[in-house]
Amino acid sequence: MSSLGVVASGPAADAIAASVPALVEAQFASKLFAQDATLWGPEAESESAIRLSWVNLARTSRPLLGEIAALRDQLRGEGVDRVVLCGMGGSSLAPEVICATAGVDLVVLDSSQPDMVRDAIVDLDRTVVVVSSKSGSTVETDSQRRAFQAAFEGKGIDPTSRIVIVTDPGSPLDEQSRADGYRVINADPNVGGRYSALTAFGLVPSGLAGADIEALLDDAEAVADVLSADDDANPALRLGAAMAATNPLRDKLVLVDDGSGIVGLPDWAEQLIAESTGKQGTGILPVVVGSQDDPEVAHPGADVTVVRLKGEDEDDSATGMVDASRSDIAVSGPLGAQLLLWEVATAAAGRLLGINPFDQPDVESAKKAARTLLDQGMGAADEPAATDGAVEIRALGGDWLAGATTVPQAIEALFGQLDADRGYVAVMAYLDRITDAELASVRPGLARRTHRPVTFGWGPRFLHSTGQFHKGGPATGVYLQITTAPHEDLAVPGREFSFGDFVASQAAGDAQVLAQHGRPVLQLHLTDHDAGLAQVRDALTTGSDHDAKGSA
After folding, report:
1. Count of CB atoms situated within 10 Å of the CB of 506
2. Could you say which protein family the record assigns here (predicted)?
3. Burial of 438 (0-12, 13-18, 19+ CB in 10 A)
4. Which helix (H) or strand (E) holds 215?
5. Integer distance in angstroms from the first to the last C-alpha of the chain?
6. Strand, coil or helix: what is 338?
7. In angstroms, rounded to a whole number, what is the distance separating the alpha carbons of residues 148 and 55?
8. Euclidean distance between CA atoms 202 and 297, whole angstroms
9. Contact of 285 with 479, CB cutoff 8 Å
10. Could you tell me which residues come within 8 angstroms of residue 533 by beta carbon, excluding any fewer than 6 positions away?
C-alpha cells in the first residue's frame, strides 16, 4: 500500500492551517478528480477543459502495459537493447526520473546542441529511438528525428523498424508517421506535457528501457482516493497550500533530496511547478540543490521554503528544524504516488495564486522569437560590448554593464542588479549537459557569493521549465547566459538550418524576450569552447571563493 507524507513547519505550516480549510470547503479535490474545468476561473476554463485527464491516468493508462511489453520483447529478441528518447520538457523529464530510479539505462536527448546530438547517434545496431512530441511540431524533436532517420538509413537499417513515435492522435506527426509506416503510440490528448508522466509519454520509453511501469501505476492508483478527498489531511492540499499560500508569499521553493531513494525528482518537479505557476507577475520558482549543506538549505532567506524529499520508512513527523522563522516541508512516498501528489498540489497552488496552471504563454513567446531569428537567418551576431580572451561579452535588458571589459567585471555588474531581498540568479548554459556537466558545480558558490537563490539550467532544456517563470514571474531575476561555438556543427537533414544555427536562435530568442521584459541578461559566448569554458568557470568560482573568504 502506497503512503504519502507531507509535514510542514514554520510559515509553511501556517499556510496549511490558513488555506486548506477553504480548499476543502470549495471541494477542490473531489471536483478536480471529477475534471471540473471551472476551478481556476472563467479565463482558464477553456484550457483546463482539455487538460484534466491526468487525474485518472493510473487507471486509463493500463491498456498501454501489454503493448509496451510486447514491443520491448520483440526489440530485445532482435538484439535492440539501447533506448534513446528524443523529447523536450514533460516528454523527457518524467522518463528520466523513472528510469534513473529503476536503475535502467535511458539516453535522453533533450537538446539541439550539435555536439550532444552527435554523441547520441551511436551504437545504432542496438538502438531504438522514441520520438515524443505532443503536438508533433516541436522543432527540437523534429530535428532529432530527422538526424536519427538519416543515420539509420546510412547504416542500411530501416528507420521504421527502429523509431517509435509517441504523439497525440490526429497530430501532424501522427498522420505523417502512420502514412510512412512508423509504429505510433498515441497519448491521451487531454493531458498537458508537464502532467504527462503517467501517459504514453512517460510509460513508453520507460517501459522499453526496462522500468516496472505497472508498479508505477499501482502506486499512483493506491493514493488516488486520498488525493481526491475533501479532507484537511489530504497531502496534496497540504503541499499546495505550503507552496503557494505563505504570507507574504515565499516564492522560492528549494528542493533537496534527503534520502528519498528517487533519483532526479526535483528536476521533474522543477518543470511542473515553474511552468505551471510562473505567470502574471507571480509564481513559485523551484530551486534544485544538491546537498543539505548548500546555502539555500543551510541559510534560507525570508522568501524561501525548503522541501526535503525523504525516504518512505523515515520518521517525517517533523522536518528536523526548530527555527520558527524557517519554512520547511518534508515529503515522502514512492515515485508513482509522488508524481500524482505533486501534480494535484501544483493544480491547487494555481488556484491559490489565482492563475491558470495549464498554459505557458511565455514559453510560446520565446519559441516564436527563436523561429523568427531562424527564418530570417542568424547572420552575424551583434558586436560584443567587449571581448576577454575566448569570451565575447554582451549585455541586454538595460544599460547596466557599466563599462565592464572583462568576464569577472561583467559578472559583478550583473550581480549588482540583484534585489537583495527577493532576487535570484539564473545560470542558463547552452552547452552539452553531459560532457560539460561539471560546470553545474559552480551553483552553490554563486549562492554563497550573492546570498540569493541560484538556479542552473541547461539550454534549451530549461526553456520548457524555469524559462516560463523567468519571463512570466516576478521581475526579480538576473540572467547569466553561456553559449558556445560547437566543436563541430551538424546539419539537420531536409532543413536549411543546422543544429548549431537552431541552438543559437533559441539562446538569442530567449535573451531577446527576457530583455523585452526588462530583465538584465549577461551573454557570455565562448568563441573557443574549451578555453572559454575554463575562463568562465574560473571567473565564477574565483569570485565565489573570494566572497566566501571575505564573509568568513
Report:
1. 28
2. Belongs to the GPI family.
3. exposed
4. helix 213-227
5. 49
6. helix
7. 34
8. 30
9. no
10. 431, 436, 439, 484, 526
Opening angle at CA 252, ends 247 and 258, nearest 5? 110
**Number of Cβ atoms within 10 Å of the Cβ of 5:** 17
3-state helix, strand, coil in the chain (%, to 5): 50, 15, 35
**For 164, phi and psi rounded to 5 degrees?**
-110, 130
Residue that has been written with the C-alpha cell 565575447 in this structure: 392
Residue 549 pLDDT: 37
Enumerate residues 6+ apart whose C-beta is below 8 A from 354: 41, 280, 282
Residue labelled with grid coordinates 471551472:
38
The reported pLDDT for the residue numbered 492 is 97
Residue indicated by cell numbers 537499417: 157
Phi/psi of residue 122, each to 5°?
Answer: -140, 170
Q: Is the peptide bond before 248 cis (omega within 30 degrees of 0)?
A: yes
> What are the pLDDT digits (tens) for 33-59?
999 999 999 999 999 999 999 999 999
Cα–Cα dist 261/432, whole Å: 27
Specify the 3-state DSSP secondary structure of 229: coil
Set of cell numbers at residue 336? 508513482
Q: Which cell goes with 122? A: 551511436
Q: How confident is the model at residue 548 (pLDDT cuts 50, 70, 90)?
A: very low
Look up residue 131 and give its three cell numbers.
520520438
Between 90-102 and 200-209, two packed helices, what is the crossing angle to 10 degrees?
40
- Return the residue matching grid coordinates 573570494: 546
Instruction: Give the distance, in angstroms, between the CA of residue 460 and the centroid of all CA atoms in the same chain.
Output: 10
Residue found under cell 547596466: 400
Q: What is the rounded CA–CA span in Å between residue 442 and residue 439?
A: 6
The upper half-sphere exposure of residue 310, i.e. CA atoms within 13 Å in the direction of its Cβ, equals 23
State the residue for C-alpha cell 513527523: 317
Contact 183, 165 (CB under 8 A): yes
- What letter does residue 381 receive in the DSSP assignment? P
Confidence of residue 32 (pLDDT cuts 50, 70, 90): very high
Q: How far apart are CA 107 and CA 82, in angstroms?
A: 8
The single-letter DSSP state of residue 187 is P
